[in-house]
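Deviation from plan, reported transparently: flavin-adenine dinucleotide complex.
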Amino acid sequence: MSDRTRTSDVDVVILGAGISGSLLALLLGRQGLRVTVVEPKPAVGTKGADFLKPRGLRILAEHGLLDVLRARGALQRATIDFHHDGAPLLSYDFAEHTGLGYYLVIPYAETVRAVLGACAGLSTVDIRFDTSLVDVHTEGSMVTEAGLSDGTRLRARAFVDSSGSGTPLRDLIEPERRMISYDHGLWMTTIPSTRTRGQLYFSSERWLAYLYSVTAGSARVFVGVPSELEEAVFLRQSVDLTTKLSSFVTDEDGIAALDASAFERAPVSAFTSGPYHRGNAVLLGGSTFGCHPMTGQGMSYTMEDATVLAAVLGEARDADELDRLLGQRYEPRRAVHARLVEYGDNLARHYHDRDAYLGVHDVVLHGGDVL
Ligand SMILES: Cc1cc2nc3c(=O)[nH]c(=O)nc-3n(C[C@H](O)[C@H](O)[C@H](O)COP(=O)(O)OP(=O)(O)OC[C@H]3O[C@@H](n4cnc5c(N)ncnc54)[C@H](O)[C@@H]3O)c2cc1C
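Because the crystal trials were delayed, the predicted structure below was used instead.
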């Protein structure tokens, strides 16, 4: 019988090699726990967050990953300039509002690769790309065994769903979701650029544009448009993107050359959910909450969650203790997430109104750190 058709015992099975699953695998592997990560894609995904703010950076630093990110080309920045209808609104200075004093910008895939690279040195961590979960066996509230598409069957003390989407594990936990929808869509492209400051533009007509360097020679451009105009701007191109942007974007770098057909839609749904676990099945990261991307904080909070969960999984000696520790230390993360989701919701509902936006903008939640 080959290795991949027998039943194996591990400590933790993790679904999804995104940032939350990868970091959890690393933290558990470093405690000597046996971990299998199951990822259906053939390689690390490219869609996700570019901004690493102080809360997340502190975790990466603690685990020796900050220098790795810098070596992979992470750009260190200290300010984000906000504008409304072409006039300056505020300039957020991380040196002024956060203890760390800066943020990093790096493509999501590079951050995940940095974490997976660190896992590669751990003999107890097995990362399987191109592999899916096909079934789970349960006894009461406990998951006892999982079958994978490569024929392997895994028994584990805990099963973590960090897939960001529906899996049999989430069905088992049956968390209630409070979905939040928005009256605008977000579209994204990448252009050649050497800009240095992050520039965020809002318009009273519910448009927004966010331009920032993501590598030394390229910038990300996010454009938010009222939902009723999305098709006309990006699919039919009957409304001219450049003309619209020129009415409120004052930094002309790259705007004239933008090609509406090169934009891809980015998800802007936000939600809170709960509970985060049942028995030994646990949800993590994008499976537990989603915040409006305007906060730039989803990944940083998720990395904190992974550290809390890694400590609980490392400490729990049996199923009862796991359930108790998850209740005491992990479930309270829901309140922390709810506050961030509410903050993102406020930003998203008020960005078109100059005074209302200034009223909801919170320097601590935005930088995500304490002085
Ligand atoms: C447009 C946009 C911009 C954002 N910008 C920022 C930002 O600047 N800063 C920030 O901090 N946060 C940002 N976020 C939020 C951030 O991307 C998420 O918080 C973060 O990606 C969550 O990580 P995750 O690992 O839980 O989920 P994901 O990153 O979604 O990873 C999930 C992984 O699970 C895999 N998977 C999918 N289905 C299955 C399955 N059935 N079984 C197993 N695996 C599966 C996926 O292929 C993927 O690899 C942004 C989000 C969006 C949508």
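The CA atoms of residues 77 and 317 lie 43 Å apart. We consider this an acceptable substitute for the interim report.
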